[in-house]
Amino acid sequence: FLCHNVFPHERFPMDRFLSRMALKQGDYFITHSKIDADDLLSIKYDARYIQTVLPTFNVFKNKNISQKIARTQLGIAYGDKVLLFFGFIREYKGLKHLLKAMPILKQTLSNVKLLIVGDFGDDKQDYLNLIQELGIHSMLEIYDEYIPDQEVEKYFTACDLVVLPYESATQSGIVQVAYDFEKPVVVTNVGGLPEVVEDGKTGYIVEPQKPARLAEKITDFFEKNKGAEFQKNIRQEAYKYSWNRMVEHIEALISKEN
């Protein structure tokens, strides 16, 4: 039984009871962060489980296009410094903090572009109001829609750095998608996100809800030309996030119990 999030990101009445009913059917469990392991044990104290990182999502790189081609497709200048926020936009994902970092970046870096790729849902107007208030519309490219699998590649290929300014999290598949494209990340120190980022090597870890800290690390990345170094480090970590490594963990869990 694969256990990704024990409880949903956005909690609701009865979710604990329903999770307990579903998970009681499992014999073995895989958790992808310490917070998930703790949640699992809170409703199934005798769970037989192993904690291991989420494997890399390697299903989106189907055309192997270059960054230049990806940017041409998106109408982005090749010399721009491109950030990516990807996925369904929800309050807990902290996009507002990244938006508030953009005016700071405008003062420290030239030609910065943020791609916001994902469905806004019912809260889009709140974000548009903030964007207008901050005066950063020219720094953004917004793709307010669900992105099918075959279209994911161009956004990750086009960017230099993937940013996850979450306020809360257990784990996120976005980091693993980024790693598959050898893209470094900036994540916040929440949930299991720090468990999959080597700070200063494969990305940066910052405190949540701190736009100035986001801006500081993003500026550091571009001013010190960290891209090639971080990509090399991500390649060196690839096996750690491979599906073969996941199989080894599953086999070890089952053999230990038998």
Protein described:
The protein is 42% helix and 13% strand. The protein is α/β, with parallel strands linked by helices. The strands form two sheets. The protein has a six-stranded parallel β-sheet with strand order 5-4-3-6-7-8, sandwiched between helices. Helix 5 links the parallel strand 4 and strand 5. Helix 3 packs across helix 6 (149-158) and helix 4 packs across helix 8 (211-223). The radius of gyration is 19 Å and the shape is globular. The model has no long low-confidence stretch (mean pLDDT 88).
Largest sheet: 6 strands, parallel
Strand order of the largest sheet: 5-4-3-6-7-8
Q: What general form does the structure show? A: globular
- Let me know the average pLDDT: 88
Distance between the first and last residues' Cα:
16 Å
Oligomeric state, counting identical vs distinct chains: single chain
Question: In what range is the share of β-strand residues?
Answer: 5-15%
Count of DSSP strands: 8
Summing up helix and strand content along with how strands pair, one would put the structural category as: alpha/beta
Q: List low-confidence stretches.
A: none
Helix content: 40-55%
Order of helices and strands: HEHEHEHEHEHEHEEHHH
| Discrete helix count | 10
Radius of gyration, CA atoms, in whole angstroms: 19 Å
